Amino acid sequence: MLELAATVRERRERIKKIITDIDASSGQHSNSLDPANRLPGAIEKLSDPAAKYTLAFPFVGFDQSDRFKVVQGNWPYVGRTKFKELVQELREVRQSEVYSHVWLYGTQGYGKSHLLAALVCYLVAQDERVIYIPDCRTLLQNPVKYVRNAMLFAWADNITTQREIMKLDTKGEIEDFFDPPLNAIFVVDQMNALKTSDVSRDEARHRQELSQWLDRFILGHKAVYSSSANHTDYLQQSIKQNSNRVLRVYGGLTRVSYLITTYNEASNSVRLKWMSGGSVAALPWERAKKRRLKTPPAASHCS
Q1: 0.90 exceeded by the pTM?
Q2: Which of 143, 159, 272, 288 could, after both became Cys, cross-link 293 (CB 3.0–4.6 A)?
Q3: Inter-residue contact 246 to 239 (CB < 8 Å)
């Protein structure tokens, strides 16, 4: 575990350098003394759909989902216009005495996970303590180790606290660590993995217990969550709770963010491919026309 602690320190420093370099390349003046306007150039660049970057992934110790295509600790990021809105939503929540959480909610394939990972990198570059849970599916398999690794990353600059974290072996000990609440931000992705419908009774109980455990130690902290639009229970829950703000990211990316690569006449559909290299399912031609595609030539832009 000492090796892991050293790895997260190196990774955190690399993220900080990458993001500050991106900020400097924008030509915008960054007033680090103004907490409401830190690294403005990085915000603009990470919100630009024409921008592509290789970022260091802000989690260590577990294999990551294919959603990120992590290679040697790095992952490809393509700018998303919603990044700027996400930063602003979190900023308002942190300044508010009413709101506690931001829910990022929308369709699969938009890039919610990439948005959250980029947000974590942006916060890390400002020396914020961020407990980042990139995949609740993996969390289900080994919750204590997964959260502990996230904590080691958040306190990468404090060897004394890292040693305390290494000794945490139970859920109760992790809860005690965050009581009383600390000056830290939680970012939790793939919350829909904890849904209790359409699974066995035992699995539903396991997911409910894990969800309640997360709620207990996140209580009192500011947090950002994400959930797929396929699971409306989390949206309904977030709307009912006055302490939540919701940022919806329905639909596809902007004009420059994906290309039509093929048109299948037999199935009357088009297949889209992200500029970052990942592909999405075939889009029925009737839906493609609603997105203002008047002809199906290969590699034409759509909006």
Answers
A1: no
A2: 288
A3: yes
